Amino acid sequence: FGSFTQEESTMATEEGDIKDKEKEVDLLGEIAVSANNQGKSIPRKRDYRQRAHCNPLSNGKWEDLPTAPDSFREDAHFESAFLDELRMEKKGEKEAKITFADIGCGFGGLLVRLSPLFPKELIIGMEIRAQVSEYVRERALALRKEHPGEYQNISGLRTNSMKFLPNYFQRGQLKKLFFLFPDPHFKRSKRRRRIIQTALIAEYAFCLREGGILYTQTDVEDVGDWMKEKLDMYPLFRPMTEEELNSDVCVELLRRGTPTEEGQKVKRNSGSTWLHCYVRVHGNPRY
After folding, report:
1. Which residues are marked as active site?
2. Three-state SS for 208?
3. Which of these, 223, 256, 186, lies nearest to 25 by C-alpha position?
4. What are the DSSP calls for 127-191, one per residue?
5. 257 pLDDT band (50/70/90 cuts)?
6. pTM (2 decimals)?
7. Scanning 53, 104, 157, 179, which has the fewest C-beta atoms within 10 Å of its C-beta?
């Protein structure tokens, strides 16, 4: 009595392996809070609707715009106790800094997915639309309330990343930079509004540390080719190898098409996406 047969022991081991696999799938696929979550206190998207597109070249008013990265206050977006905890764990660093940035984060679906995968990294979503960026902030606060101890590492802010990205990040500060489903700006006269431009890539290279990764994904083939062409020409980036792509958890997440609201829409309609990922390499000492 109380002992297991060899068959029962094997079955228990297999069940444990299955549970481990299910747990892994939960993190990458169907996690407790989906990209379109509507929990008890989560803000409703319909209350934060705004025009789908915004002109990034216009001169708008930007409140709380830092004049330099040193004047950007992380404690305005993340709880001080959590920042202190990160500082304690990362010995040798004077302060906890943002290391992941989602440019044009929309309603923050990617942030929600990345949070449990990288609980010790500060992740920020940057969105140009005022109502949408406010939704992301409110969503992060609501998630922290509903899930105590979780989602402490994500937040959103309103800014124009095409103009002010170096105001937020020091040289080599970021580990990962995401450009997912950016505005396509189909008309030739408006292509200068696209987020991936030769001049702007220099800023992205400045903010990314060596070995950092830049991710692009779109459901418009022409835009995918445009981003790939611009990045292929830039000497401080190289395409990820197939081996690197297969071992990167973020790539796996993006390939599944579940982390962002736009990605889910494409998946529901059985559409195609074009994913291109690049590694920041050593180059000119200025960068």
Report:
1. 183
2. strand
3. 256
4. ES-HHHHHHHHHHHHHHHHHSTTSSTTEEEEE--HHHHGGGT--TT-EEEEEEES-----SGGGG
5. confident
6. 0.81
7. 53
